[in-house]
Amino acid sequence: MNKYIFTLAGVAAMALLTAGCNKDLTIEMPAPDPMAEKVLIGEAMITDQNSGDLLFSTTYSSGEVMLDITLPTAESTITVVHDSEDNLYANLLSRLKKQDKFGQYTLLPQENATIEIRNGATADQKVAVVTLKEIEKLPYAIYLLPVVLDIDGEMVAHFVKVPLMGSFLPLSEHNQKPLPPGTDYKEPIKLIAYVETNDYDPRNIANFVLKDSKLPVFDMIVLFAANMNYDASQQRRVLFFNDKLQPMVENPDVFFKPIRDRGIKLIMDILPNHHGVGYLNFQSYEEALDFAGQMKEWSDKAQIDGWDVDEEYAEYYKLPNYPYVDESSLWFLRAARETMPNTILTHYEYNSPFDSYSTDDQGKKAIDYLDYSWTDYNVTGSSQIGMPNDRYGNRSIQASYGGLRQAESVAQSTIDEKLGLLMIFNMTVSKDNYKSFENSLSEITQKFYGEDCVYAGPHFIGPKGI
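Structure (tokenized):
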């Protein structure tokens, strides 16, 4: 039986149900614990005196969570406040959701937990024992159990968090997907998914895993899209995230960590945005370095693993003082690679700013800087920029327009041509249609890995209700 210990010292917190609150009473959590999780949400019901962040005790399975409590005095009283007819726990959860708009928590069913108070080593020490039962049988969700205590007439709450994220084994150097059955491939074929972040939460794509090995189906998830904008006041091109994407990059522990924890690489697409700037009109290498510096800043801040070059919608005529420059696109790649030597650089070969023969003043071609590239939907043949087959994919699939109906034949063509990857665009996964995606993706994963695909995780709803 698992046993995780968290200390509540000092004991009380913001009074949840009474008008008054003894300001001398606080709940103080211990120093950072590997099983404790902070979620940044501002004012909280229980706070760390130093940071003010809400703190949870987190566990992932049946067992005991031990909360050590030091009472204000040896004569203090403490009792467990159980859920009531006025839906105390649901009201607490509702208050929490108002503070943490990204949490999407579900109340843990009452039959799956008991809470009791036991004596500690001294008269003023108690232990709240939370026993979790048959957790593994519950549907996938992020569950919360409020532990509500009445201490000397003050009611305080602590939350036990139980994320049921599905059974998975993270991709890593040592945990690689199987090779295509009956082939001479030396490396597993990579699957890439683009997600329209205006409408869909990328965490749901990470829920697809191989049924037997439990490894993630997708190696990379590309967020579509950040923008290359022009700021006239600064006379400078700027990296821009819209109102759907901005909350994600500002809260990477919420939106990106569940993806990266599965070993999936998180890639950010950069798309010109009708402002007159794109990959073809950097006016100098220094300008390219300035933009690459902005990319690095967000790579570090938002835990982004790579960037996708996507040349569309620039409308260069809007900035006649920024003409085409032959070296421009290679300046960008060189600047990105020199600024972020360990980042992944990918390319969507539609309206490509690159070719297979041009070199920069370092003697390098586009493929010397790029890691992978793929074609537009249903485009066959070899890479137009000269990308080797093991780092290239053609016949990309547009999932939202029925492209997955050809999933099996596209997968077989990928193998027949000895290509290294396949891209699927706009995975419109919802809580109502994920089964159909399981079936379609299984046609691909059977060809590539010899296993079916299953959806193993809770369904997430991202910022702004997406």
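Confidence is low (pLDDT under 50) at residues 1-54. Residues 97 and 103 are 7 Å apart (CA to CA).
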